[in-house]
Amino acid sequence: MSLMNYTQLFRGPLFVAAYPGWIFEEVFKLQNITAEPTTSEITIADPTRIGLPPLDSVTSTSEINLTGEAVSFSPRAAAIAMYGSVTQVPSGTVTGEEHPAFIDRAIMLANIPLEVTAVTSEDGATTYTRNVDYAVGPFGIRILQGGPLATAIAAESPAAGELPSLPILVDYSYPTVDVIKPFTTGQRFYRVMTGQTNEGGNGERRRIQCFYCKIALNGGIPLNQGAEFGVIPVQIKLLADPNIMDEGEAAMWQWEVQNTAVA
Questions:
Q1: CA 181 to CA 59: how far, in whole Å?
Q2: Which residues make beta-bridge pairs with 166?
Q3: How far apart, in whole angstroms, are the C-alpha atoms of residue 256 and residue 253?
Q4: What residues have CB less than 8 Å from 154, skipping those under 6 apart?
Q5: pLDDT, tens digit, for every residue of 106-144?
Q6: Bridging pattern class, strands 232-238 and 205-217
Q7: Integer Cα distance of 62 and 42 in angstroms
Q8: How many degrees, rounded to 5, is the angle at CA 208 between CA 239 and CA 59?
Q9: Taking the model in full, what pTM does it have?
Q10: Phi/psi class of residue 32: alpha, beta or left (left: φ > 0; alpha: ψ in -120 to 50)?
């Protein structure tokens, strides 16, 4: 008789579908997923004994919390986890976008600049030089100190209490972007499903279906990382599917695990 190995090393993709549909997509990759039930105890006291110890009790599982770390977090995943929306804005070009220029100040352009083709004076007579008069970043452009543009700005006489400035025109192209607006709607529910293989045991396969879920962030979003990659904690709360009411049916989730001892 051979001894079975029941070590656990299950890994596999996790898929999400909008409730009540069954069309699944992989919106993020999760690692280190754990499941923890939330239970409540319903107790009746024994009236015939001193101190009223429990006569009987029922343990009820009200919800199950899945927690994991997202290592691939798409704009669609951000919209799902933050109860928001995502809108795709196509690429394009802008000619002559007007802005006041201040020395050593950032100018937020109307779109994320992909390539700045020209920065000129308001009348178009003077063309300024990149990395001498201004620098370009994902935020827009920044006016640099020491260049001809900064010298021209410093020569202006602003009103009392205001910084000297000059109007400039910016020509640039911008990329297609996904605009994520978090926390715009609430109470969205999903189905979650994962298919996994046990790499540490006998290679058995496992499929877990979660019928009625809420997905949210379980911690902070890394905004400015140091030397390490950022992971995003995600929480998936499993609730009882309101459409599953039959006695003896699991309303939160169902596991299917391959029995490798049987052909």
A1: 40
A2: 101
A3: 10
A4: 103, 164
A5: 999 999 999 999 999 999 999 999 999 999 999 999 999
A6: antiparallel
A7: 12
A8: 45
A9: 0.81
A10: left
